[in-house]
Amino acid sequence: METLEFAKYYDITEFAKEHNFYDEFEKIFICSDVWDFWIARVTKDMYFDEHKGEYKDDEGSYLIERNKIPKESKGQTIGSTEELAKVIEEDDLSNWDMKNAHSMDEVIEILDGGYGIETLELSEI
After folding, report:
1. How far is the C-alpha of 37 from the C-alpha of 53, rounded, in Å?
2. 95: number of CA atoms within 13 Å, CB side?
3. What whole-number distance in Å separates Cα of residue 2 and Cα of residue 80?
4. N or C: which end of the chain has fewer CB within 10 A?
5. Residue 43: which H helix or E strand, with range?
6. Is the dihedral of CA 35, 36, 37, 40 positive or negative?
7. What is the pLDDT of residues 48-79, one digit of tens each?
8. Residue 29 pLDDT
9. d(CA 34, CA 36)
10. What are phi and psi of 27, to 5 degrees?
11. How far apart are the C-alpha atoms of 47 and 99, rounded to whole Å?
12. Rounded CA gap, 34 and 21, in Å?
């Protein structure tokens, strides 16, 4: 059974949608860090104006909202669909940070430095 690679983002959109999580978002990604799991939620045609602190409709824009979910222990990983669902359920939709992008390629660049994001296949966990 595979587990999430450290500090690498995975696309979990298909899993999330199949389990009725995050229906309003275009894409969902997860990353395993030392002490946290990072959930990145992407909304298409949305922009966050940092100066005014307001969300705005903006065709062609992508808004990335990230939240960190604390791990139970430093070595915790996700090794099953049940564990993945448990981490997702901990996301209260608050934001640790937000970034604006103008394409899905830019979203990938922001999240993973251009190294690419893999789709997490359920057979891997």
Report:
1. 26
2. 11
3. 9
4. N
5. strand 36-49
6. negative
7. 999 999 999 999 999 999 999 999 998 888 88
8. 96
9. 6
10. -140, 150
11. 9
12. 24
d(CA 9, CA 87): 15
Centre a 10 Å sphere on the Cβ of residue 104 and count the other Cβ atoms it contains.
Answer: 14
Which helix (H) or strand (E) element contains residue 76? none
Per-residue exposure over 58-96, b if at least 16 CB sit within 10 Å of its own CB, e if not = beebbbbbbbbbebeeeebebeeeebbeebbeebeeeee
pTM of the model: 0.91
Which tokens belong to 14?
Answer: 């298909």
- Strand pairing class (9-11; 118-119): parallel
Length of the chain as a residue count? 125
Query: Token pair of 28, please?
Result: 């969902």
Cα dist from 72 to 17, 36, 98, 101, 108, whole Å: 25, 9, 25, 32, 28
Ranges of the chain whose pLDDT falls below 50 = 1
Joined together, the tokens standing for residue 115 give 């190294």
Amino acid, single-letter form, for residue 78: I
- SS3 at position 118: strand
What's the CA gap between 83 and 102, in Å, rounded?
A: 33
